[in-house]
Amino acid sequence: MDELGHWINGKRVAGTSGRFADVWNPATGEVQAKVALASKAELDAAVADAAAAQPEWAAMNPQRRARVMMKFVSLLQRDMDKLAEALSREHGKTLPDAKGDVQRGLEVVEFCIGAPHHLKGEFTDSAGPGIDMYSMRQPIGVAAGITPFNFPAMIPMWKMAPALVCGNAFILKPSERDPSVPLMLAELMQEAGLPDGVLQVVNGDKESVDAILDNETISGVGFVGSTPIAQNIYERGCANGKRVQCFGGAKNHMIVMPDADHDQAADALVGAGYGAAGERCMAISVAVPVGEETADRLIEKLVPKIEALKVGPYTSGDDVDYGPVVTPMAKENIHRLVQSGVDAGAELVVDGRDFKLQGYDDGFFVGPHLFDRVTPDMEIYQKEIFGPVLSTVRAGSYEEALKLAMDHEYGNGTAIFTRDGDAARDFANRVNVGMVGINVPIPVPLAYHTFGGWKKSVFGDLNQHGPDAFRFYTKTKTVTARWPSGIKEGGEFTIPVME
Ligand code: NAD
Question: Is 281 an active-site residue?
Fold first, then answer.
């Protein structure tokens, strides 16, 4: 069986802790590899080496660091198929979706090629008599990123590319569910010219995360994952004097107004609700039709589309809509929550509980589910299910629909489908959610904007990627300079001669 270790000082090394986690192939249900789980001592040693390598990297001018990113982009393009295959094999998502995962990370790397511009600072000429003032952006030193299983290429790249291009060393602690792609990314970074030791990939679980939070050399931590862990990491990291940004879970509502194009809305809901088996923090998990007539029409359009979804392994290529969920525990949790919805009285209009895929009996496939008449007191409404389960909450009015999205504890993404510009504008202005779509179901901002939710979907202030990433991974230093001004008076204009 394959054993996956860590990436330390420019090479793959085996773990020494003696602890491992299983890495499944979710399509077949087989354990295909074991991944080493680092001890505190292994993490601390990786950080010490990174700290030693960082000053030389930081001293390289930003344009040269940007060229490493430029080369990295071309290597990602060269290896796209290989990366996507490794990603699908461990995560389960379809190959086209795995390529999207790599591509959305690559786009942030492209944005980082603009580092010389983003790092050039500010200058005020003559802030006082003979005084100039300038602000520099300097690296924070060693930063760390702790990332989730659901985007094993994109989110590590969202973290490491801006951190590195700013002149930091970076410790990546990827998800132990799908560790292969992060290790491959580190290899490509080395091929692109990144000096050894500047990027360390340390695989692990809570022990290595705690070691990151307690390590005195690490000065910044970025986390993406579930909300309870995000909150713990934020609190412990801040208490230890680090700058910390943590992005958590979601429950994204899509409001469908009576005047919306209902075919378009139904198509959007199917893609956004069931794509990647619902394992996306920007998935739509709650449909909110406004008015009984809208609700009836929407359900009528949704049911045949959901029943026609093709669920299968990534090896079927373009011929599947979504694949298995990531682990047997994830599958069990989804089934438990579906049962809780049934028990609470929600109507299970599409029932995927008995779904079986011939030839893949041990795979972690979950059939699509659609609930109608869900109410806010139900567990399926309150909790993030992270599976192919869409809940419909019928709202009597636009205000009622808006209030639902506003009152939910999560605030990552939301969308409204309407032809009414007033309603769309009002929604975008008033809703207390970080990313809003207008007739766009998954409004993930592009690399040059920033990504982040509100409420319990985030802990910290700055967002991911875009200009905020350059703020998070640098410290501002402001210099006030006055130079002696007597030189002109004392100048000699005739050639000195012997008296
Ligand atoms: P997770 O919280 O289980 O794991 C995230 C990371 O934390 C992993 O690296 C994991 O090893 C580590 N971890 C797990 N348990 C820990 C513990 N007790 N102490 C310290 N570290 C621990 O999340 P996941 O299941 O990998 O990912 C899915 C979650 O991530 C969902 O809630 C999803 O909404 C969220 N997510 C959020 C965003 C966003 O930008 N807001 C993006 C993607 C995913």
Answer: yes
